[in-house]
Write the structure tokens for this entry.
Amino acid sequence: GAKTAGQHGTAYVRVTVSSGGRVQEVRIHRSTGNSSLDASALACVRGWRFAPALREGKPVAASALVKVSFRLSN
């Protein structure tokens, strides 16, 4: 895993969320520079649930940029 390999970094992931709060699309906006960490960041965000964005009190589809950081801890 990332811990044993001594890997760390921050990815910015663009996520598109449906009006029902489900993740529709995820993609790397800014890479960690490590493809396995990027893949982990995408998998992580893909599993999240979101409160849908509201426009005039009604839920709507929206996209957001989320930061996913990986760091070592002892």
Remarks:
- The first helix runs from residue 2 to 5.
